Amino acid sequence: MAAPRHRILYDLDPWQRVRKKLGLAIVGVFAVSAVVRSLFPKSDIWNLIGLLAFVLLGVALGMGLRSRFSYVRASGNRVVIRVAWRRLRLDSASVLGVHVAPLGKFYKGAERNQLPRPHGVWVSLPAIAMRVDPEHIGVARLTKKLGTRPVCGQELVFPVVGAGELRDQIAATLATPTVDNGSFPAVYEPSPSKRKRRPGR
Questions:
Q1: pTM
Q2: What is the pLDDT of residues 80-129, one digit of tens each?
Q3: Which residue, 190, 187, 163, is CA-closest to 74?
Q4: pLDDT at 75
């Protein structure tokens, strides 16, 4: 039986908040388009309204697919991380430790601008954090594969559904050290963020 996908909240949360509104908007626009076409068959305005409906449908489809295919999962002897079309697989040699902590533990000061708004809501969410061995995979490759947001020094940090369950699955799959109660083993000291500040920030 395959391990469950723990969906990443960066993509799941926006979709859950807007999907009903988008659905209603799409139905409403299609309905208006049909009425306009029946009342004014020679008018081209219904084409524009129909085009708007298809644009909304495309936005909904894109957000829905992104939320579905952005996840972290322990699979076989690896951890699979997928963010939309980007994918990274980590084996036991690459992961030194795994931990669950509030997202705000990893994003401080100006770095919180990396988080969605409102920041105060996101910093309290539980996140899975994996310490990655720099000898196996460096920061540059992590950033290229997954973007800048989840890369905090040599940690990969994701707010996910069921963070504690995922931590246990990763530990069981990779025989990786875990930690509770906020203390870290020697192999997994949270490192200061090494992100470069953007000019002017």
A1: 0.77
A2: 999 988 889 998 788 888 999 999 899 888 888 888 888 888 999 999 99
A3: 163
A4: 82
Domain boundaries, the chain: 6-68
Residue 124, classified by CB atoms within 10 Å of its CB into exposed (0-12), middle (13-18) or buried (19+), is exposed
Tracing tokens 């990763």 back to the chain, one arrives at 170
Radius of gyration in angstroms for the set of CA atoms belonging to the chain, rounded to a whole number: 21
Please list, in sequence order, all residues whose beta carbon lies within 8 angstroms of the beta carbon of residue 179, skipping any fewer than 6 positions away: 97, 99, 185, 188
The gap between the terminal CA atoms of the chain, to the nearest Å, is: 48
For every residue of 52-117, DSSP letters joined together read HHHHHHHHHHHHHHHHHTEEEEEETTEEEEEETTEEEEEETTTEEEEEEEEGGGT--GGGGGGSPS
**Residue 130: alpha-carbon gap to chain centroid:** 15
In this prediction, residue 2 carries a pLDDT of 63
Kindly report, residue by residue over 147-181, the tens digit of the pLDDT. Answer: 889 998 889 999 999 999 999 988 887 765 555 43
